Hints:
The protein is an alpha/beta fold. The protein has helices spanning about 10-15, 20-25, 30-35, 40-50, 60-70, 100-110, 125-130, 130-140, 155-160, 175-180, 180-185, 215-220, 290-305, 320-325, 350-360, and strands at about 55, 85, 120, 145-150, 170-175, 200-205, 225-230, 240-245, 250-255, 260-265, 270-275, 310-315, 335-340. Helix 8 (about 130-140) runs parallel beside helix 9.
Amino acid sequence: MIIRPLMAPANLLLALNEDVLWNIVSFLDAPDARELSRTNRIFHIVAKHQALTSVTLHSLASVIKFCRYFLGDMSHRLPALHALEVLEGQQEKTGHISEDERREAAQLLADVLDGARKLVLTGAETWFTHEDRIVDAIGSMTHLHEVDFRGLGGKTSYLIQHLRSTPYKLTLAQDEMSFSREARDQAFAFEDEFTMPSVLHFVTLGYAFHLLSPSAYSRAFPNIRRADLGSVKRYRGDVPAMTVHWHSLEHVSCALSALTGWVNVAPIHYLEITTLLEESAPGWHGSSAYDVAYQRRVVGEAVANAQPLALSAIISPANANILNELASLSARLRHLRIVLHDITYTGHWERKLAAWWVSASGFR
C-alpha cells in the first residue's frame, strides 16, 4: 500500500476552483478581505474585489487617488461599492488646498457615487457647494440604506428632501464651530410637508439636534424606533415642553441636554442617559459648575415623561442615593442599569466598589 502525504491545508484551499474561492471570500468584510489579498497572488486576485466593497478615505488626496483608480482600472467594480466613507475630504488639517483640487475631487466623487448602500460624508455642505453634480448623484441613488452627513446647511437639507433612496438610518452631525457660523448663514431646514417614513434609526452628533425643533424632526421622520441624540452640550433652557409624535420610538440614547424641551406622545421602552449624573461637575462653556438641581430636575422630568421599562444611567460611586430617586420616577420600570463612572482598574477599585455597594444596599 502506498501512503501519500496529506496536502497542507493552505494547498488544499488554493486547489479549490475560482468560483468556490469567490464564494468563500464573499463572506469576509472589507478589512479582512484586504488582509487576505496580501497573502499570495491567487488570493490577491479574488479578495481585492471584496476589499473594495467598503472604502474609507481620510484626506482629499486619497479621495482623488481612489476615484481615479476606481474609475480607471476598476470601473467594472463600481456596482460592488456598497459603503463609502469620506471623513476628511474637504477639511485638510495641513497644507494648502487649491480650489482646482477641491473641484477635481468633487467631480471625481460625483462620478464614483452610484451603487453605494452606505454613505458617510464629512464636510457635506462644502462638498455640495463645490460640485452640484454630487447633489444630483446622491439624490439619484436608489440603494442607500445608511446616510451620514456631517457639516450641514441649506444644500444638505435640500438633498435629504430629494433623495430617491429610502434609508433606514440617518445620521446628522454639526460641530460647535459650524453651529455658531454656518448654521446661521446657511439655513438647514425641512419643508413642513416633507416626511421620510423609511428612517427607523436617527442619530444626531454635535449640535445637530438643536438645528431644528424636536417636533420638526418628528414630523420629518415619524417612524423612528431608535434615537441616538449624542454630543449635545447646550440646554434648551426653561421652555415649555412640546409634544413630539414618535409613536414607534422604543430606544432613546442621549445626552442630558437633549432631553429638555420635548415630551414623546407615547412611553419609551428603553431610556439611556449618557451624561454623568453626580453631585457636582465641571461646567460647560467656561463656567465653573452648572446647577446640579437643574440637572436632577431635567432627569426627573425626562424619566417621568418617558415612563421607560428599562433605564440606563452613569453615576458617580458617591451618588448612590440617586438609585431610589430614579427607580421611583417610572411606574413601568423593570430593569435599571447603572454604570459607575470613576471605578477604574487601580489598586483601590475593590475598596471603592465595596463602599458603593454598601451605600446602595438600601435600594429597593
